[in-house]
């Protein structure tokens, strides 16, 4: 069940990201979820959250490469890790910038998504003889 739900959520987020990319090329900015503005800036707290979560994800995979070079990851596992960093970073950034409480739905949504992706990205193969 978690896998079906995670595929549905990932598909929706992928469609959103693709449409936001195309809209930006056409001169319309869309920021999550469906805030459409023409050539306006995205709120600073959201850009900071995005930037810091990308930096943390890069750091995580950099250290993972150095210390656990042979372990492979699936794309869903990458998404799980990134969304977790995005949620945690967003919580700290929103709190430190005193963002209005109504903006926290953004963090709550990605928290729920990270829980679903966590269960969907778990490895099915278990070693019972250890």
Walk me through this protein's architecture.
The chain is mostly helical and 130 residues long. It has one domain (2-120). The chain has helices at residues 2-25, 44-67, 75-96, 105-120, and strands at residues 28-31, 35-38. It starts with a helix and ends in a 10-residue tail after the last helix.
Comma- or semicolon-separated keywords:
single chain; mainly alpha; 130 residues; globular
Quick description:
66% of the residues lie in helices and 6% in strands.
Helix residue percentage: 55-70%
Rough outline:
globular
Question: The biggest beta sheet, please?
Answer: 2 strands, antiparallel
Question: Structural class of the helix and strand makeup?
Answer: mainly alpha
Q: Overall pLDDT, averaged?
A: 80
What would you call the quaternary organization?
Answer: single chain
Beta-sheet strand percentage? Answer: 5-15%
Radius of gyration: 17 Å
* Number of E-type strands: 2
Tally of individual domains: 1
Q: For the terminal residues, how far apart are their CA atoms?
A: 28 Å
* Total of helices: 4
The parts where pLDDT drops under 50 for at least 5 residues are none
Topology (SSEs and partners):
Blueprint lengths: L1 H24 L2 E4 L3 E4 L5 H24 L7 H22 L8 H16 L10
Antiparallel strand pairs: 1-2
Helix pairs in contact: 1-4, 2-3, 3-4
